[in-house]
Amino acid sequence: MSFWKKLFGTGGAAEKPAAEPIEYKGFRITPQPMSDDGGYRICALIEGEVDGETKTHQLIRADVIRDAEECAAASVAKAKQMIDQVGAGVFRA
Q1: Which of 28, 51, 79, 93 is deepest in the core (most CB within 10 A)?
Q2: What is the CATH number of domain 18-91?
Q3: The model's pTM
Q4: Which long-range contacts (CB under 8 A, 24 or more apart) does 13-19 make?
């Protein structure tokens, strides 16, 4: 039965509240570390306005960090780096 609980998320630990977005150069970065293989994978949601429309980009990196808070900080740092490098180009396919 635990397989089904893990698959559908029932009966497990309480869900962690979403992190607050961080404003950076006109973008909003929300760290979203993903649980992965004994640690957390770097992941963040980047949002911004382009031509009056809200655009989003899900940043996911291969890096896995053991501590969730460390991973959240690294996720924000990687998102900032991406914004610095490509700006609104982050939303292009």
Answers
A1: 79
A2: 3.30.160.350
A3: 0.79
A4: 19/72
